[in-house]
């Protein structure tokens, strides 16, 4: 199987429990909740995505012939001591492409593997760190993992029901749009009301990182 990668880059993880950790990001092209085209946003299930995942023309992106080739590119991107290698599989929706061969190749290269998924597809069981960000209007089938990261506000999201899902960490992340200040207040209010949740900020945006 070949892999369509929009972009790949070395940065610091900006969100969630792993925030601040050096990471290779592999952003896969394609998503099952939005085409990525602005003309389709109004009718998409997920309408607030702030990421370009269309095509394979981003920095470090391309079509990789097999899992070994993609893992080798991630190793070259890491460019440092093998200890602590950390890779984040994201998108779009990475589970449209991630398979056993890629997980095996990344593990063989010494990577601890994290994924950021919308949860509409089962996550590969070989992944080490599972972050699910559910989208209102979609069916979340992956209801267990390491962290549940809910962008807020999302009308139609049932935070009470989500508290029964099998996640180690429950995170609320303010929606970054024209109402950002109000969204931050709403997220903080929810955490104050329901203390099982924690506030998650997009620190990479605050620091000017990719």
TrEMBL record:
Gene3D superfamilies noted in UniProt: Aldolase class I
GO biological process, one term: tRNA queuosine(34) biosynthetic process
Top EC class of this enzyme: lyase
InterPro entries in the cross-refs: 7-CO-7-deazaguanine_synth-like, Aldolase_TIM, QueE_Cx14CxxC, rSAM, rSAM_sf
Cofactor annotation: [4Fe-4S] cluster; Mg(2+); S-adenosyl-L-methionine
EC assignment: 4.3.99.3
Molecular functions per Gene Ontology: 4 iron, 4 sulfur cluster binding; carbon-nitrogen lyase activity; magnesium ion binding; S-adenosyl-L-methionine binding
Reaction catalysed by this enzyme: 6-carboxy-5,6,7,8-tetrahydropterin + H(+) = 7-carboxy-7-carbaguanine + NH4(+)
Binding site for Mg(2+): 51
Pfam family, one: Radical_SAM
PANTHER family in the cross-refs: 7-CARBOXY-7-DEAZAGUANINE SYNTHASE (PTHR42836)
Function according to Swiss-Prot or TrEMBL: Catalyzes the complex heterocyclic radical-mediated conversion of 6-carboxy-5,6,7,8-tetrahydropterin (CPH4) to 7-carboxy-7-deazaguanine (CDG), a step common to the biosynthetic pathways of all 7-deazapurine-containing compounds.
Listed name of the protein: 7-carboxy-7-deazaguanine synthase
Organism expressing this protein natively: Sphingomonas dokdonensis
